[in-house]
Amino acid sequence: MSKTILIVDDSFSLRHTLAIALKGAGYDVVEASDGLDGLSKLDGRKFNLIISDVNMPNLDGIGFVKKAKALPNYRFTPVIMLTTEGSQDKIAEGKAAGARAWVVKPFQPPALLDAVAKLVLP
Prior knowledge:
Elements: E1 4-8, H1 12-24, E2 28-32, H2 35-41, E3 49-52, H3 61-69, E4 79-83, H4 88-97, E5 101-104, H5 109-119
Parallel strand pairs: 1-2, 1-3, 3-4, 4-5
């Protein structure tokens, strides 16, 4: 059975690029355009991993991760933050919210797929 990854990013082109890389590696992908849209996708379906941007309208990535981690079904779902933010403060804030990894854009798909393979839930 394939594993499903939720991508939460306000950039359509980035979601599309990421979806192509992940689907090419055999994952199913669900896309959300911002944190609120991402929360609406957390409807009880199993996600093996979440990849989220930090800077988004409506609900930013850190707020999204905090809310996602508060949901019993998603408490243990690993989260990779994929963002242009590289400051130690932001990274610490993301880790405190529950992010397991931090990847700074622009990213190399092989490096990201490697992080995904390490963190994705069985």
